[in-house]
Fold this sequence. Notes:
The protein is of the alpha/beta class and 403 residues long. The chain is built from 17 helices and 13 strands.
Amino acid sequence: MAGPLSGIRVFDLSRVLAGPSCTQLLGDLGADIIKIERPGEGDDTRRWGPPYLKDAASHDIEATYYLSANRAKRSLTLDFAKPEGRDLALRLIAHCDVIIENYKVGTLAKYGLGYEVIHAEFPRLVYCSLTGFGQTGPYAPRPGYDFLAQAMGGIMSLQGEPEGEPMKGAVAFADLMAGMYSAVAILAALRHRDATGRGQHIDMALLDTQIAWLGNQGQAYLSTGQAPPRLGNAHASVVPYQVFASADGHIVLAIGNDGQFKKFCAFARAPELAGDPRFATNATRVTNRETLIPILKSLIAKQPSAHWIEGLEREGVPCSPINTLDQVFADPQVKAREMVVTMKHAGLPEPIALIANPIKYSGTPVEYRFAPPTLGQHTDEILRELLNMSGEEIARLRERGVV
C-alpha cells in the first residue's frame, strides 16, 4: 500500500541532523527522498563516531549517528560546485516537488541553486531552507548548531540543578524539533501548491524553533516578566512532579491533580498531608514546595522502587521507573508498539535494528522501504530512472568527479 506522500519527490541537500530528520519523516510517509551527497565525502555524520556500525570483520561501516536520521532515502553523489554538476542538479530538480537545504545563507546562490533562480524556473517547487538563524536578521550569516540554539534560545537556562551549571539536552532536540517544524511546513506548502499551482520559500531557523517550543516556560516569562529558575527535575507549575530516590534507586512521581495527591498520601500512609491546608491544592503545594518535598523524600526513601511503581499504578497515580536504554527497548509496551524495526543494510549480511517511526495510521501504515543508504548507493539507479542515462554516460560523469 502506497504511503500518503507517495508521488512526492524531495531533492535533499541537507546534512547532519535537522534536515535529515525532516526528510526521514517524509520518506517514512512515502515520499521519494533523493539524498544528494558530495562524491567521496557524503554526509558529515557518516564519520561522527564512535560508535560505528561494524561488519562481520569488525570494520567500521557507518557511524550510528548517521543511521539515526537517514532511513527511507536513496543516496546520489553529485558535485554541484562543478558547472556540469549544477546542470545535472537542475535536470533532476525538474522531477522533484521539494528542495530542502541547510547550507549557510547565500551558499547555494553562488552555484545557481538559490531560491530565486529555482523558483523562476520551477514555480511549483517548494523550497525549504533550514539554517541556524534564518535568512534575515543580524545573525543570518552565522553557522548554526544545535548546542548554540539551545544556549541562545533559553532552554539551557531552564535545565540543570538550581546550584549547578546550565545543561543542554542529551540529544540534539533543537535540531530534531527544527526538522519536525520543517516537515509540517513542507506539507502545508505542498497543500497550498496543489490548490494554487505556486510553490514558495520556507525560511526555517534553529533559533526560531527553539524559542517556539519554550512552551509554558516562555509564556510564563512573557506574562510576568520574571525568568523561571532552574528546578532540576522538578516542575515549575505542578508539585509533586519530579524524581525521588527510593530505597533502591529512583522513580518519577508525576501527580497532576489534587485527587491523585490524595490517593498518593493514602497509599504512603500519610493521609494527613492531603488534609493539610499547605498541601491540599496544587497551588498551595507549589507555594510550599520547600516544605513538602523533604517530607515526601523521606517517605519515598523508605520503600524500594517496585513498591511505589506497582502500588501507585493500582491506585491510578502516575509513577514510573527511570529506564536505561536496555530497559526501554525490553519494555513490553515498547515492544507491543513495535518501536524497533529491522532492515537489510547494503553493507551487511544481517538486518540492522533502527528506531521505528511513531506514527500509526489506520489506512496507510508506514512502510520501511530503504535502510540508511551507503554513499552513492543509488546514483546509477536514479540517473537511469529520472534522466534515462546510459551506463556509459554515468561512467563518464564518474570519471570527471561529477557523481
